[in-house]
Amino acid sequence: MARASDATGTSAADDLARDLRANGVRLIAGSLTDPAGVTRAKYVPVSRLGAFERSGMGVSPSWSVFCVDSGIAFTPTIGVTGDHRIRIDRRDVRVIDDGIGWAPGNLNDQAGTPVPLCPRSLLARAEQSAADRGLSARVGAELECTMVALDGGPATTDPWSPYGIRTSLDRSALLVDLAETAETAGLDVEQIHTEYGHDQLEVSLAPTTPVAAADAVILTRIVLGRVAARHGLRISFAPVPFDGAAGNGAHLHLSLADAAGPLFSGGDGPHGIRTAGGSAIAGVVEALPDLLAVYAGSVLSAARLRPGNWAGAAACWGLENREAAVRFVAATAGSPHGANAELKLIDPSANPYLAAAAFLGSALRGIDLGLDLPPEIPENPAQSDVATRPLPSDQRAALDAFEYSSVAAELLGPEVVEALVAVRRYELKTYGELTLADTTRALRLAWSC
Ligand code: GLU
Ligand code: MG
Description:
Elements (H helix, E strand, L loop, with lengths): L6 H16 L4 E7 L5 E7 L3 H6 L2 E3 L24 E4 L6 E4 L2 E5 L1 E3 L10 H14 L3 E14 L15 H5 L2 H13 L4 E6 L5 E6 L4 H21 L2 E4 L15 E7 L2 E2 L12 H21 L5 H4 L9 E6 L4 E6 L10 E4 L8 H18 L25 H9 L2 H7 L1 H18 L4 H8 L6
Parallel strand pairs: 1-6, 14-15
Antiparallel strand pairs: 1-2, 3-4, 4-7, 5-6, 8-10, 8-11, 8-12, 9-10, 12-13, 12-16, 15-16
Helix pairs in contact: 3-9, 5-6, 6-9, 7-9, 7-10, 9-11, 10-12, 11-12
The structure holds glutamic acid and magnesium ion.
């Protein structure tokens, strides 16, 4: 990262700014995704790229407690004084379209050090602590979302066929535009399809290092929003977009490897899972009740996270089990990236940096503690004889479990816990008594980019 006194960095930023300008870029957005899962941004003219990198752009500390609407959930430690900086790294800049470039931001203090509230730095630390243990981590993301009309209402009323060739070809112009814009933005899209829910789309991204994976989630949301707008639509990332509709998931796949190879294959455990891999899965499953507020903690999350929705509402794991919170994917010829653990219960109201940090952190914690892989649930957990630990059943219970959890404090730090609890309790107070129809109407576009 270039420093203020680093002449090389300064001229490198100026060179890049000139190249971007020649490519039509006029404004650079630096974004920050907050504990409520909402992505916000500041812009600079492209000529000021170097300043965005060296000094950052000022934001109030209240950015960390902005809520899903325009509310602010001030806490005893986050008020109206102080100043933070969004700083970007020129190497992260991607070209979107219409003169806009984008880079993910870190949240720093004025001296240039990431603050404890910075979700992206928190994930970078989790990535580093894996490396400190001799482990490399890869994360792959799936983004489910719902196409909606410009006024926020349903995009279509025609019958929907899940994964239908008709429902996808009806949107061929949008899908081709999506593939093209994603490629220009440097995204590694693996798959696109129309999903089960009415007007629902899914985009799957190739696995990469954890911070890069969370960055790619935000960039994909931006690209989806831009492309949809060109086709007279908007994109909802609400966990439940309409009362009665299928939910939107934000599943993350995690794989880990040490010098001897992958932890989830080549061993003596079930499906080839190595001892450390079993401990990683055990750590993730054990921490689910404490961390549900991170993964699926919004006022709309509990309506999605129910048995029968393939949302992974049961605190267990199982091979290719779509009702288990952790769906294990074994190393087969059909799985080119190898074995991995998919955490299905994450929804798009979650901050992807915090969700990935909690997922990876709880896996590392399981390894550190040498936890034993719990028994596999090979069938629908709702019909299994093996009891699974109950998950908090609603937002209030999830927040209660999270607020005083030592695991949450250990993995995320007390500052993030305080901010996340504040913004989610605000949601509970503001929307908790409304009908699902009214809450989905109010928050349908809250997590859109
Ligand atoms: N839409 C489901 C969810 O809310 C997931 C469906 C699937 O398995 O892809 O997570
Ligand atoms: Mg899906």
